[in-house]
Structures are given as C-alpha cells and as structure tokens.
Write a structure and sequence with these properties.
Layout lengths: L1 H14 L32 E6 L5 E6 L6 E5 L2 E9 L7 E10 L3 E7 L14 H25 L5 E6 L4 E7 L4 E3 L9 E12 L9 H4 L3 H11 L23
C-alpha cells in the first residue's frame, strides 16, 4: 500500500503538483493547473415547433411540441469520393486521390413522447394524447395539401422545423417511416419517431410578434409561462423572408 501511495503522489506531482486527487490542489515548487466550473444562467428556451407554410410564406398550421424530444439527432453527410492509384516508393506504392464536394443539408431524427398531462409549452392547449393526434394530423394535412396542389398545378406547401434552443431553423421534408408507437409497459403514453430530410437552412423563424402563429390560440398564456420559467425572455425574431420554398419537388 505504501508503495502504491508513493507512486500516486509521484504521478500527482508530475501532472500538476497536487498532493491530493480528491481535495483542492496544493501548489508545489513546479507549475500546476487547476480546473473549476463557472455557473452559467440558462437563458435559452427548449422549445420546438413544426409549421406548414404556403408558397407565400403564410402559416397554414403550426404544432408546438409540449415536451422536448427525448432524442434529437442532427447529422450531415460529407460527400467525398476516394480511390487508390499507383504511387511512389515513398508512398509505399499507393497514392490516394480524394474528390471533395461538401456537406449535404442536415437530416433530423426525433424521438420522444407528448406525455399524458397538459403542458405550459403549448399554453395548456392539449393533453398528451390530443397533442400526439395534432402532430399526426399536421403531417397528414401536409401530405394532403401538396397532393391537392400538384393535382391543381399550384405551388407546393413547405414544412419548417424550429429549434429555439439552438436557434436552428430548417425547411424539412418527411422521409421514410414516421412512427407513432404504443407499448404495453407504458400504456398511457404514445411515442413518436420521426425522420426528416433538411431542404434549406432558414436564417430565422417567423416573427412571434403575432404569437398565435407559433403557440396557437393560447399564445399569451404560453408565452407568460415560458417567460416565468426561465431567466431569459422569449426572443421576438424578425419576419423570415421565404427562401427557396419551391425546392421540394412533387411528381404527379
């Protein structure tokens, strides 16, 4: 034991001149480092919303997630192509060539639940079951609106995802399975698993000055609850100039 303690003290002295691994660092004659955390106030709102927008940028239907997703994965794919060709002896006979194209727009994977009770995030508008039904309805409405627009030869609607925690706003397109799941060990909860392909990065979400656009009919109650629950305030963004709203192509 004495030998082990002696070794630990030697390593401690070499790494930082501290006589203790658990206590405060005690300076020795040599250089040392100390590390400390600094508390930072939470001034960001963990708020997530999904909105259907017309070709003119008007909000047709908006959904606010009552609970933050249990998992939100944002990923990019780096488009590069490599191949091996004959190289010099200094390269061990092989040289690698790489074409670099860039990164694709983001892909989003969201998983979570809307809970069971009502929540202040959406102004207590829906309980958990009704909220998940609203989310299903919005995705269904988006598909039906665009099918009708294609048949009539009209401009398409777009879908926008707003992540207010990271100030990250994207036009997205649902791809593949959009899953709503019930399991026997959690009979009161419905979980969702959503996969969206990003189309274009939006510089800002719609202005929340007319709060009903984002939070629905109970906007004032929702904004008041959010302001009282965090140390910051709800940011009022400038109106977003609709960008490439026609980048999603539909085929009849």
């Amino acid at each position: 034991m004495a030998s082990i303690l002696g070794t630990l003290n030697t390593v401690s002295a070499l790494l930082g001149g501290s006589d203790s691994f658990n206590g405060a660092a005690t300076p020795s004659s040599g250089p040392f480092q100390s590390f400390a955390t600094i508390p930072v106030a939470n001034t960001r709102i963990a708020l997530y919303a999904l909105s259907i927008r017309s070709s003119t940028g008007e909000a047709y239907e908006t959904y606010t997630f009552p609970l933050s997703p249990g998992s939100l994965v944002k990923e990019h794919t780096s488009l590069s192509n490599s191949w091996n060709v004959a190289g010099t002896p200094q390269q061990n006979g092989v040289q690698r060539e790489i074409d670099v194209y860039g990164d694709t727009p983001a892909t989003f994977h969201l998983e979570g639940t809307t809970g069971w009770q009502t929540h202040s995030t959406d102004g207590f508008a829906y309980n958990g079951i009704d909220s998940i039904l609203q989310l299903e309805k919005l995705l269904s409405d988006y598909a039906q609106l665009n099918a009708t627009a294609v048949a009539a030869g009209n401009p398409l609607y777009t879908l926008e995802f707003y992540d207010y925690f990271k100030n990250d706003f994207w036009q997205v397109q649902p791809m593949g399975r959009q899953e709503f799941r019930q399991v026997k060990d959690r009979p009161l909860l419905i979980s969702y698993s959503l996969h969206w392909e990003g189309v274009v990065d939006l510089s800002a979400p719609p202005s929340s000055s007319s709060s009903t656009t984002l939070f629905g009919s109970n906007a004032n109650s929702s904004l008041s609850s959010l302001n009282s629950s965090v140390s910051g305030t709800v940011t009022d963004y400038e109106p977003n100039t609709p960008g490439a709203s026609s980048l999603v192509t539909a085929y009849a």
